[in-house]
């Protein structure tokens, strides 16, 4: 008996073209949303890390800097600091180290606009803004009765007859930089000065105390009268005929992070000590998180006493 084979149609299932296009669009939308969340998260983490780096530099490095500068004029019997004070706490001229023949004034306190004789490692005014940076040089003697350490970590023996001289300045932290915007840090170079004015171990490249900085500015607070202070840059103070005593130091810094931001969203200009500093730019520049900070330091060893005499009329 012959069986007849019947052709039974098979049902084939699958995605239509429209369904595939819908699935593709949905997949792209979900991927885009995930990438957006990832980018926002990464950007937030980068900003937080950069802000943390700047905050660490401000809290720790700036506090250490303030403590060092407060030592200025320690051990000096003369409490009125001018550019003529022997072993004065703020070093402006050779008179302050009792060595008028020391001509390398690029190692002393200087500000933008001054013309000085410069050594290999002395002040150059380098900064990452349109305004040159300053330099602050201080001096003190260890009369505390215990060992101390200078800003480079060298021991200052208790009872040492030498004066400690320290200068704070901006220099490059990476060799052979060719870009307009350079990696800069705030350095401190420490040396010694004898009572006779002989300088040793000074004028070196120093140690970096703030690793990422774009600007360092200094103003000298002078006691112009009984009730007020006038803040002057070193180049203006040096031109005064009657130089008032220096009692405070005002510092301004622009500190940046070590971690670059993902987008060019940070500021390009900062107000520092009442002056607008505009950052330099170049095609290879990476944007960093930056903040400007100012601090005023009272020189506790440079008190100026004023005596006011009142006339009393008898009846």
From TrEMBL:
Membrane-spanning parts: 20-40
Superkingdom of this protein's organism: Bacteria
Coiled coil regions in record: none
The protein's name in its UniProt record? PilW family protein
Enumerate the UniProt keywords alphabetically: Membrane, Transmembrane, Transmembrane helix
User: Record's PROSITE patterns?
Assistant: PROKAR_NTER_METHYL
């Amino acid at each position: 008996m012959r069986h007849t084979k019947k052709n039974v149609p098979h049902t084939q299932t699958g995605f239509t073209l429209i369904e595939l296009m819908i699935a593709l669009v949905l997949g792209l939308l979900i991927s885009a949303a995930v990438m957006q969340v990832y980018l926002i998260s990464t950007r937030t983490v980068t900003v937080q890390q950069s802000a943390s780096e700047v905050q660490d530099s401000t809290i720790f490095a700036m506090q250490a800097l303030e403590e060092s500068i407060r030592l200025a004029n320690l051990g000096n019997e003369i409490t009125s600091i001018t550019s003529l004070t022997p072993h004065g706490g703020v070093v402006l001229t050779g008179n302050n180290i009792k060595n008028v023949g020391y001509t390398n004034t690029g190692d002393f306190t200087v500000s933008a606009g001054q013309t000085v004789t410069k050594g290999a490692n002395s002040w150059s005014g380098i900064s990452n803004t349109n305004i040159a940076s300053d330099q602050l040089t201080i001096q003190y003697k260890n009369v505390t009765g215990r060992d101390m350490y200078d800003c480079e970590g060298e021991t200052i023996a208790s009872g040492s007859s030498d004066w400690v001289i320290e200068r704070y300045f901006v220099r490059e932290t990476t060799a052979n930089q060719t870009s307009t915007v350079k990696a800069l840090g705030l350095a401190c170079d420490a040396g010694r000065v004898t009572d006779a004015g002989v300088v040793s171990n000074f004028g070196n490249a120093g140690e970096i105390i703030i690793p990422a900085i774009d600007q360092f500015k200094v103003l000298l607070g002078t006691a112009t009268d009984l009730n007020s202070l006038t803040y002057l840059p070193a180049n203006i103070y040096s031109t005064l005929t009657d130089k008032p005593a220096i009692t405070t130091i005002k510092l301004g810094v622009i500190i940046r992070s070590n971690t670059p931001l993902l987008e060019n969203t940070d500021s390009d200009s900062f107000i520092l000590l009442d002056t607008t500093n505009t950052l330099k730019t170049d095609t290879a520049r990476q944007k960093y998180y930056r903040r400007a900070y100012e601090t005023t330091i009272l020189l506790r060893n440079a008190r100026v006493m004023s005596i006011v005499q009142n006339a009393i009329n008898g009846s």
